[in-house]
Amino acid sequence: MLTNLKPQPADKILMLMQMFRDDPRSDxxxxxxxxxxxxxxxxxxxxxxxxxxxxxxETETTKSYTGxxxxxxxxxxxxxxxxxxxxxxxxxxxxxxxxxxxxxxxALELVxxxxxxxxxxxxxxxxxxxxxxxxxxxxxTRDYRYFxxxxxxxxxxGMMADLGEVRAGDVVLLHGCCHNPTGANPGLxxxxxxxxxxVARGANALVDLAYQGFGDGLGADAAPTRLLAQRxxxxxxxxxxxxxxxxxxxxxxxxxxxxxxxxxxxxxxxNLAFLNRQNFSFPPDHGARLVTMIxxxxxxxxxxxxxxxxxxxxxxxxxxxxxxxLRKATGSDRFGFVAAHRGMFSRIGASPDxxxxxxxxxxxxxxxxxxxxxxxxxxxxxxxxxxxxxxxGV
Length: 394
What we know:
Aspartate Aminotransferase, domain 1, 14 helices, 47% helix, alpha/beta, two-stranded parallel sheet
Protein backbone atom coordinates (compact mmCIF):
# COMPACT_ATOMS: atom_id res chain seq x y z
CA MET A 1 0.00 0.00 0.00
CA LEU A 2 2.57 2.58 1.06
CA THR A 3 4.56 2.04 -2.14
CA ASN A 4 1.59 3.39 -4.07
CA LEU A 5 1.90 6.80 -2.46
CA LYS A 6 3.03 9.69 -4.62
CA PRO A 7 5.70 12.20 -3.59
CA GLN A 8 4.21 15.48 -2.42
CA PRO A 9 5.66 18.89 -3.28
CA ALA A 10 7.94 20.24 -0.59
CA ASP A 11 6.69 23.21 1.41
CA LYS A 12 8.73 26.20 0.22
CA ILE A 13 8.70 27.98 3.58
CA LEU A 14 9.82 24.85 5.44
CA MET A 15 12.62 24.41 2.88
CA LEU A 16 13.62 28.02 3.44
CA MET A 17 13.70 27.46 7.21
CA GLN A 18 16.05 24.51 6.75
CA MET A 19 18.33 26.49 4.44
CA PHE A 20 18.49 29.23 7.07
CA ARG A 21 19.43 26.74 9.79
CA ASP A 22 22.18 25.29 7.61
CA ASP A 23 23.66 28.70 6.76
CA PRO A 24 26.79 29.20 8.92
CA ARG A 25 26.83 33.01 8.61
CA SER A 26 26.36 34.82 11.92
CA ASP A 27 24.72 37.88 10.35
CA UNK A 28 21.99 35.99 8.45
CA UNK A 29 18.42 37.29 8.72
CA UNK A 30 15.29 35.13 8.68
CA UNK A 31 12.36 36.99 7.11
CA UNK A 32 10.61 33.90 5.78
CA UNK A 33 8.68 32.06 8.47
CA UNK A 34 5.46 33.78 9.55
CA UNK A 35 6.12 33.90 13.29
CA UNK A 36 6.40 37.02 15.42
CA UNK A 37 9.83 37.63 16.95
CA UNK A 38 10.96 40.38 19.29
CA UNK A 39 14.13 42.45 18.90
CA UNK A 40 16.18 39.58 20.34
CA UNK A 41 14.84 37.15 17.73
CA UNK A 42 12.70 35.28 20.25
CA UNK A 43 8.99 34.47 20.06
CA UNK A 44 8.12 35.37 23.66
CA UNK A 45 5.47 33.95 25.96
CA UNK A 46 3.18 36.86 26.73
CA UNK A 47 2.94 38.01 30.35
CA UNK A 48 -0.80 37.31 30.61
CA UNK A 49 -0.32 33.84 29.15
CA UNK A 50 2.35 33.06 31.75
CA UNK A 51 0.08 34.31 34.53
CA UNK A 52 -2.90 32.34 33.24
CA UNK A 53 -0.81 29.17 32.96
CA UNK A 54 0.33 29.54 36.56
CA UNK A 55 -3.24 30.06 37.72
CA UNK A 56 -4.43 27.10 35.65
CA UNK A 57 -1.69 24.87 37.06
CA GLU A 58 -2.78 25.79 40.57
CA THR A 59 -6.52 25.34 40.04
CA GLU A 60 -7.05 22.73 37.31
CA THR A 61 -8.47 19.49 38.68
CA THR A 62 -8.97 17.35 35.57
CA LYS A 63 -7.64 16.66 32.09
CA SER A 64 -10.87 15.04 30.94
CA TYR A 65 -12.38 15.87 27.55
CA THR A 66 -14.37 18.99 26.91
CA GLY A 67 -17.36 18.81 24.54
CA UNK A 68 -17.08 17.98 20.84
CA UNK A 69 -17.11 21.69 20.02
CA UNK A 70 -14.78 22.58 22.89
CA UNK A 71 -15.56 24.56 26.01
CA UNK A 72 -18.50 26.87 25.18
CA UNK A 73 -16.88 29.61 27.29
CA UNK A 74 -14.00 29.77 24.79
CA UNK A 75 -16.34 30.21 21.84
CA UNK A 76 -18.31 32.88 23.66
CA UNK A 77 -15.24 34.82 24.77
CA UNK A 78 -13.48 34.75 21.40
CA UNK A 79 -16.62 35.45 19.37
CA UNK A 80 -17.22 38.51 21.57
CA UNK A 81 -13.64 39.69 20.95
CA UNK A 82 -14.18 39.32 17.20
CA UNK A 83 -17.75 40.54 16.80
CA UNK A 84 -18.05 42.87 19.79
CA UNK A 85 -21.72 42.10 20.38
CA UNK A 86 -22.75 43.23 16.88
CA UNK A 87 -24.61 39.96 16.21
CA UNK A 88 -27.25 38.34 18.40
CA UNK A 89 -25.81 35.41 20.33
CA UNK A 90 -28.59 33.05 19.26
CA UNK A 91 -27.26 33.35 15.69
CA UNK A 92 -23.72 32.20 16.58
CA UNK A 93 -22.49 28.63 16.25
CA UNK A 94 -18.87 27.85 17.03
CA UNK A 95 -16.42 25.02 17.50
CA UNK A 96 -12.85 25.04 18.80
CA UNK A 97 -10.23 23.97 16.25
CA UNK A 98 -6.53 23.02 16.22
CA UNK A 99 -5.27 26.42 15.15
CA UNK A 100 -6.32 28.80 12.43
CA UNK A 101 -5.40 26.26 9.77
CA UNK A 102 -7.75 23.75 11.39
CA UNK A 103 -10.50 26.38 11.40
CA UNK A 104 -10.01 27.11 7.68
CA UNK A 105 -10.00 23.40 6.87
CA UNK A 106 -13.14 22.78 8.90
CA ALA A 107 -14.89 25.78 7.33
CA LEU A 108 -14.19 24.42 3.86
CA GLU A 109 -15.37 20.96 4.98
CA LEU A 110 -18.61 22.62 6.04
CA VAL A 111 -18.88 24.31 2.64
CA UNK A 112 -18.37 20.96 0.91
CA UNK A 113 -21.15 19.42 3.01
CA UNK A 114 -23.61 22.27 2.50
CA UNK A 115 -22.82 23.35 -1.08
CA UNK A 116 -20.45 20.93 -2.83
CA UNK A 117 -20.82 22.70 -6.19
CA UNK A 118 -20.03 26.15 -4.78
CA UNK A 119 -16.92 27.83 -6.16
CA UNK A 120 -14.45 29.08 -3.56
CA UNK A 121 -12.94 32.42 -4.59
CA UNK A 122 -9.40 33.15 -3.39
CA UNK A 123 -7.45 36.39 -3.57
CA UNK A 124 -4.47 36.43 -5.91
CA UNK A 125 -2.13 36.18 -4.10
CA UNK A 126 -3.21 34.47 -0.89
CA UNK A 127 -1.75 32.34 1.88
CA UNK A 128 -0.57 29.16 0.06
CA UNK A 129 -2.45 26.84 2.44
CA UNK A 130 -5.75 28.28 1.18
CA UNK A 131 -5.08 26.96 -2.31
CA UNK A 132 -3.70 23.70 -0.98
CA UNK A 133 -6.70 22.90 1.23
CA UNK A 134 -9.30 23.86 -1.37
CA UNK A 135 -7.54 21.72 -3.96
CA UNK A 136 -7.22 18.77 -1.57
CA UNK A 137 -10.92 18.90 -0.74
CA UNK A 138 -11.78 18.94 -4.44
CA UNK A 139 -13.79 22.16 -4.30
CA UNK A 140 -14.12 24.29 -7.44
CA THR A 141 -12.01 27.41 -7.15
CA ARG A 142 -11.32 30.70 -8.88
CA ASP A 143 -9.01 33.62 -8.19
CA TYR A 144 -9.91 37.27 -7.87
CA ARG A 145 -7.46 40.10 -8.46
CA TYR A 146 -6.25 41.65 -5.24
CA PHE A 147 -2.75 43.15 -5.35
CA UNK A 148 -1.57 45.94 -7.64
CA UNK A 149 2.07 45.18 -8.43
CA UNK A 150 2.69 48.78 -9.49
CA UNK A 151 1.31 50.59 -6.45
CA UNK A 152 1.86 47.70 -3.98
CA UNK A 153 -1.68 48.38 -2.76
CA UNK A 154 -5.06 46.71 -3.25
CA UNK A 155 -6.27 46.49 -6.85
CA UNK A 156 -9.77 47.30 -5.72
CA UNK A 157 -11.25 47.90 -9.16
CA GLY A 158 -9.88 44.58 -10.40
CA MET A 159 -11.10 42.84 -7.25
CA MET A 160 -14.63 44.16 -7.63
CA ALA A 161 -14.71 43.37 -11.34
CA ASP A 162 -13.73 39.75 -10.71
CA LEU A 163 -16.10 39.33 -7.76
CA GLY A 164 -18.86 40.66 -9.98
CA GLU A 165 -18.80 37.20 -11.54
CA VAL A 166 -19.53 35.25 -8.34
CA ARG A 167 -22.67 33.18 -8.44
CA ALA A 168 -25.33 32.74 -5.79
CA GLY A 169 -24.04 30.28 -3.21
CA ASP A 170 -20.35 30.76 -4.04
CA VAL A 171 -17.94 31.39 -1.16
CA VAL A 172 -15.47 34.28 -1.21
CA LEU A 173 -12.51 33.83 1.12
CA LEU A 174 -11.42 37.18 2.56
CA HIS A 175 -8.53 38.12 4.84
CA GLY A 176 -10.11 39.98 7.76
CA CYS A 177 -7.04 42.19 8.27
CA CYS A 178 -3.28 42.21 7.67
CA HIS A 179 -3.48 40.42 4.31
CA ASN A 180 -1.01 37.55 3.95
CA PRO A 181 1.26 37.79 1.96
CA THR A 182 0.94 41.40 0.82
CA GLY A 183 0.15 43.50 3.91
CA ALA A 184 -2.22 45.61 1.77
CA ASN A 185 -5.82 45.98 2.99
CA PRO A 186 -9.04 47.57 1.69
CA GLY A 187 -10.35 50.62 3.53
CA LEU A 188 -13.49 50.26 5.63
CA UNK A 189 -15.57 52.02 2.98
CA UNK A 190 -14.34 49.53 0.41
CA UNK A 191 -15.31 46.71 2.76
CA UNK A 192 -18.83 48.13 2.66
CA UNK A 193 -18.75 47.90 -1.15
CA UNK A 194 -17.56 44.29 -0.90
CA UNK A 195 -20.42 43.47 1.47
CA UNK A 196 -22.96 45.11 -0.84
CA UNK A 197 -21.65 43.13 -3.81
CA UNK A 198 -21.84 39.82 -1.93
CA VAL A 199 -25.41 40.53 -0.83
CA ALA A 200 -26.44 41.53 -4.35
CA ARG A 201 -24.89 38.39 -5.84
CA GLY A 202 -26.25 36.07 -3.15
CA ALA A 203 -22.72 34.90 -2.33
CA ASN A 204 -21.26 33.80 0.99
CA ALA A 205 -18.05 34.85 2.70
CA LEU A 206 -15.40 33.05 4.72
CA VAL A 207 -13.17 35.40 6.70
CA ASP A 208 -9.71 34.20 7.70
CA LEU A 209 -8.92 36.30 10.79
CA ALA A 210 -5.41 35.37 11.85
CA TYR A 211 -3.93 38.73 12.90
CA GLN A 212 -6.51 40.64 14.93
CA GLY A 213 -4.59 43.24 16.95
CA PHE A 214 -1.50 43.22 14.72
CA GLY A 215 -2.68 45.91 12.29
CA ASP A 216 -4.52 48.98 13.58
CA GLY A 217 -5.72 47.60 16.92
CA LEU A 218 -8.17 44.99 18.18
CA GLY A 219 -11.34 46.91 17.34
CA ALA A 220 -10.16 48.41 14.05
CA ASP A 221 -8.87 45.04 12.83
CA ALA A 222 -12.22 43.40 13.61
CA ALA A 223 -14.28 46.18 12.00
CA PRO A 224 -14.42 44.63 8.49
CA THR A 225 -15.53 41.27 9.90
CA ARG A 226 -18.16 42.95 12.07
CA LEU A 227 -19.42 44.87 9.03
CA LEU A 228 -19.78 41.66 7.03
CA ALA A 229 -21.51 39.92 9.94
CA GLN A 230 -24.05 42.72 10.15
CA ARG A 231 -24.72 42.96 6.41
CA UNK A 232 -24.65 39.33 5.27
CA UNK A 233 -27.31 36.82 6.31
CA UNK A 234 -24.59 34.19 6.85
CA UNK A 235 -20.85 34.33 7.51
CA UNK A 236 -18.06 31.89 8.35
CA UNK A 237 -15.07 33.12 10.38
CA UNK A 238 -11.87 31.12 10.88
CA UNK A 239 -10.03 32.72 13.80
CA UNK A 240 -6.53 32.03 15.09
CA UNK A 241 -5.05 32.80 18.51
CA UNK A 242 -1.49 31.93 17.45
CA UNK A 243 -0.31 35.46 16.76
CA UNK A 244 -2.23 37.80 19.03
CA UNK A 245 -1.82 35.51 22.07
CA UNK A 246 1.56 34.15 20.97
CA UNK A 247 0.50 30.54 21.57
CA UNK A 248 1.57 29.07 18.24
CA UNK A 249 2.36 25.57 19.46
CA UNK A 250 -0.87 25.27 21.46
CA UNK A 251 -2.83 25.21 18.15
CA UNK A 252 -5.76 27.34 19.28
CA UNK A 253 -8.42 28.39 16.82
CA UNK A 254 -12.17 28.79 16.43
CA UNK A 255 -14.60 28.26 13.57
CA UNK A 256 -17.48 30.68 13.99
CA UNK A 257 -20.66 30.50 11.92
CA UNK A 258 -23.09 33.43 11.84
CA UNK A 259 -26.48 31.93 10.98
CA UNK A 260 -29.49 33.83 9.59
CA UNK A 261 -31.70 32.82 12.52
CA UNK A 262 -31.79 30.80 15.73
CA UNK A 263 -33.20 27.66 14.08
CA UNK A 264 -30.38 27.56 11.53
CA UNK A 265 -27.87 28.22 14.31
CA UNK A 266 -28.86 24.94 15.98
CA UNK A 267 -28.42 23.08 12.69
CA UNK A 268 -25.02 24.69 12.11
CA UNK A 269 -23.87 23.94 15.65
CA UNK A 270 -24.79 20.26 15.30
CA ASN A 271 -22.86 20.03 12.04
CA LEU A 272 -19.80 21.74 13.49
CA ALA A 273 -19.78 19.19 16.31
CA PHE A 274 -20.23 16.39 13.77
CA LEU A 275 -17.24 17.55 11.73
CA ASN A 276 -15.05 17.75 14.82
CA ARG A 277 -16.05 14.19 15.66
CA GLN A 278 -15.04 12.95 12.22
CA ASN A 279 -11.69 14.69 12.17
CA PHE A 280 -10.32 14.55 15.71
CA SER A 281 -13.23 14.08 18.13
CA PHE A 282 -12.45 16.53 20.93
CA PRO A 283 -10.40 19.65 20.16
CA PRO A 284 -7.32 20.65 22.16
CA ASP A 285 -8.19 22.69 25.23
CA HIS A 286 -5.06 24.06 26.90
CA GLY A 287 -4.61 27.11 24.69
CA ALA A 288 -8.35 27.70 24.47
CA ARG A 289 -8.62 27.67 28.26
CA LEU A 290 -5.78 30.18 28.59
CA VAL A 291 -7.45 32.49 26.08
CA THR A 292 -10.75 32.19 27.93
CA MET A 293 -9.10 33.00 31.25
CA ILE A 294 -7.37 36.05 29.80
CA UNK A 295 -10.45 37.42 28.05
CA UNK A 296 -12.70 36.99 31.09
CA UNK A 297 -10.30 38.24 33.78
CA UNK A 298 -10.11 42.08 33.76
CA UNK A 299 -6.53 42.26 35.05
CA UNK A 300 -5.20 39.58 32.71
CA UNK A 301 -7.05 41.08 29.77
CA UNK A 302 -5.71 44.57 30.44
CA UNK A 303 -2.13 43.26 30.60
CA UNK A 304 -2.63 41.18 27.43
CA UNK A 305 -4.07 44.14 25.52
CA UNK A 306 -1.18 46.35 26.68
CA UNK A 307 1.47 43.86 25.54
CA UNK A 308 -0.32 43.23 22.25
CA UNK A 309 -0.38 46.98 21.62
CA UNK A 310 3.35 47.17 22.36
CA UNK A 311 3.88 44.42 19.78
CA UNK A 312 1.73 46.17 17.17
CA UNK A 313 3.41 49.54 17.64
CA UNK A 314 6.83 47.88 17.50
CA UNK A 315 6.05 46.44 14.07
CA UNK A 316 4.80 49.83 12.88
CA UNK A 317 8.06 51.44 14.00
CA UNK A 318 10.02 48.81 12.05
CA UNK A 319 7.90 49.54 8.97
CA UNK A 320 8.54 53.26 9.26
CA UNK A 321 12.27 52.69 9.82
CA UNK A 322 12.51 50.36 6.83
CA UNK A 323 10.68 52.81 4.57
CA UNK A 324 13.05 55.57 5.73
CA UNK A 325 16.19 53.45 5.24
CA LEU A 326 15.02 52.40 1.77
CA ARG A 327 14.45 56.05 0.88
CA LYS A 328 18.04 56.81 1.87
CA ALA A 329 19.49 53.72 0.18
CA THR A 330 17.64 54.16 -3.12
CA GLY A 331 17.06 57.91 -3.28
CA SER A 332 13.42 57.13 -4.03
CA ASP A 333 10.06 57.12 -2.27
CA ARG A 334 8.91 54.03 -4.15
CA PHE A 335 9.04 51.91 -0.98
CA GLY A 336 6.68 54.16 0.98
CA PHE A 337 4.09 51.38 0.82
CA VAL A 338 6.06 49.47 3.46
CA ALA A 339 4.97 51.99 6.11
CA ALA A 340 1.38 51.94 4.84
CA HIS A 341 1.01 48.15 4.93
CA ARG A 342 -0.19 46.45 8.10
CA GLY A 343 0.55 43.23 9.93
CA MET A 344 3.62 41.05 9.73
CA PHE A 345 4.07 40.89 5.98
CA SER A 346 4.83 43.02 2.94
CA ARG A 347 5.68 42.02 -0.61
CA ILE A 348 8.44 44.35 -1.77
CA GLY A 349 8.39 43.59 -5.50
CA ALA A 350 11.69 41.72 -5.87
CA SER A 351 12.01 39.08 -8.58
CA PRO A 352 12.95 35.49 -7.61
CA ASP A 353 16.46 36.19 -8.95
CA UNK A 354 16.77 39.28 -6.77
CA UNK A 355 15.50 37.35 -3.75
CA UNK A 356 18.12 34.67 -4.41
CA UNK A 357 20.83 37.30 -4.77
CA UNK A 358 19.94 38.78 -1.38
CA UNK A 359 20.14 35.31 0.16
CA UNK A 360 23.45 34.42 -1.48
CA UNK A 361 25.20 37.75 -0.97
CA UNK A 362 23.68 39.01 2.28
CA UNK A 363 22.24 35.98 4.08
CA UNK A 364 18.73 37.43 3.90
CA UNK A 365 16.03 34.79 3.67
CA UNK A 366 12.58 35.63 2.33
CA UNK A 367 9.97 33.76 0.31
CA UNK A 368 10.57 33.70 -3.44
CA UNK A 369 7.66 36.06 -4.18
CA UNK A 370 9.51 38.65 -2.00
CA UNK A 371 7.15 38.39 0.96
CA UNK A 372 9.11 39.42 4.02
CA UNK A 373 8.21 39.13 7.68
CA UNK A 374 8.58 42.57 9.23
CA UNK A 375 8.63 40.98 12.68
CA UNK A 376 11.85 39.17 11.74
CA UNK A 377 13.67 42.51 11.79
CA UNK A 378 15.07 44.74 14.50
CA UNK A 379 16.53 48.24 14.57
CA UNK A 380 20.00 46.88 13.74
CA UNK A 381 19.02 44.63 10.83
CA UNK A 382 16.68 47.11 9.09
CA UNK A 383 19.57 49.10 7.51
CA UNK A 384 21.20 45.83 6.44
CA UNK A 385 18.02 44.78 4.65
CA UNK A 386 17.60 48.18 3.01
CA UNK A 387 21.15 48.05 1.70
CA UNK A 388 20.63 44.53 0.34
CA UNK A 389 17.40 45.54 -1.41
CA UNK A 390 19.10 48.53 -3.01
CA UNK A 391 22.15 46.51 -4.11
CA UNK A 392 19.90 43.83 -5.62
CA GLY A 393 18.33 46.50 -7.80
CA VAL A 394 14.76 46.02 -6.56
